[in-house]
Amino acid sequence: MFEGLSDKLSNILSSLTRRGALTEEDVNAALREVRRALLEADVALEVVRSFTDKVRARAVGAEVVKSVSPGQQVVKIVHDQLVEMLGSDAEVISLNAVPPVGILMVGLQGSGKTTTTAKIARRLKDRENRKVLMASLDTRRPAAQEQLAVLGKQVGVDTLPIVAGQSAVQIARRAMEAARLGGYDVVMLDTAGRVTVDEALMVEAAEVRAATNPHEVLLVADALTGQDAVNTARAFDQRLGVTGIVLTRMDGDARGGAALSMRAVTGKPIKLIGTGEKVDALEEFHPSRVANRILG
Ligand code: GDP
């Protein structure tokens, strides 16, 4: 039967009937279970280590509050540390720049980048009354450009007319120019993805970034990526200077470990989460909810 972490920790620490401070021994016993729970939630190993070190530093010597059991006390410390590392406040997409404000969407193929581009465009249009232009920079897959045009029609957002034979940088420049002339507030640039992080992908995205100077660079990542999440996030952040992360497929079985991993290695906020295939399935990120989900 499924047993949540808090029950497990209560059992482990049940012998601790005396009041007083948590000893290193108590904490280490509890941390073995915490470590297991984090790995089950697909938190990357290096992040599990730094997380448990932080919890240990916080828990050893902590006074057990009279009204709670030592197990509950450790669970609270773990939960608080998770929330702190996930980012305490929900962050929003910043449009605080001279329009047209560029938003560069980056990520691996299949992560949900194109869908998320349309979801965010819809949100900016409907909730913030912004005039948004979307452009697909995927020159290798014409179907990707058409996919964005179809989504644009569905959400009532303009897409840049497709011109065959242009490079990603040329399309991006054309999008910024069209937005300037057309009085758009926001330009969303949907870059090409690859199945794995590769050099050509990074070079192209870096060129687009240099040519358009976007205000936000959003990394779209699949919540089910597990241990790879750290490497993906680190690679994109080092090369492109990510400003925020959108985690997709949070409607699935993912326990949300990728959120902690990505946030920990990049320090960049998780701004939104994708919760389904439909264009309105986009929600704000609530650190406390994800912390509970990770704890199981
Ligand atoms: P891209 O290759 O990164 O542009 O990925 P797409 O936007 O084409 O998305 C790939 C698939 O994932 C599509 O079938 C989407 O409908 C689906 N998808 C995207 N975001 C989500 C999400 O948050 N939840 C679920 N369940 N599916 C999603």
TrEMBL record:
The keyword Nucleotide-binding applies. It is an enzyme of class 3 (hydrolase). Keywords: Cytoplasm, GTP-binding, Hydrolase, Nucleotide-binding, Ribonucleoprotein, RNA-binding, Signal recognition particle. Its main location: membrane. The keyword Ribonucleoprotein applies. It comes from the Bacteria. It catalyses: GTP + H2O = GDP + phosphate + H(+). It is found in: Cell inner membrane; Cytoplasm. It is a peripheral membrane protein. GTP binds at residues 107-114, 190-194, 248-251. Its EC number is 3.6.5.4. Belongs to the GTP-binding SRP family. SRP54 subfamily. Composed of three domains: the N-terminal N domain, which is responsible for interactions with the ribosome, the central G domain, which binds GTP, and the C-terminal M domain, which binds the RNA and the signal sequence of the RNC. Part of the signal recognition particle protein translocation system, which is composed of SRP and FtsY. SRP is a ribonucleoprotein composed of Ffh and a 4.5S RNA molecule. Involved in targeting and insertion of nascent membrane proteins into the cytoplasmic membrane. Binds to the hydrophobic signal sequence of the ribosome-nascent chain (RNC) as it emerges from the ribosomes. The SRP-RNC complex is then targeted to the cytoplasmic membrane where it interacts with the SRP receptor FtsY. Interaction with FtsY leads to the transfer of the RNC complex to the Sec translocase for insertion into the membrane, the hydrolysis of GTP by both Ffh and FtsY, and the dissociation of the SRP-FtsY complex into the individual components. This is Signal recognition particle protein. It comes from Microvirga arsenatis. The chain holds residues 1 to 296 of 514 of the full protein.
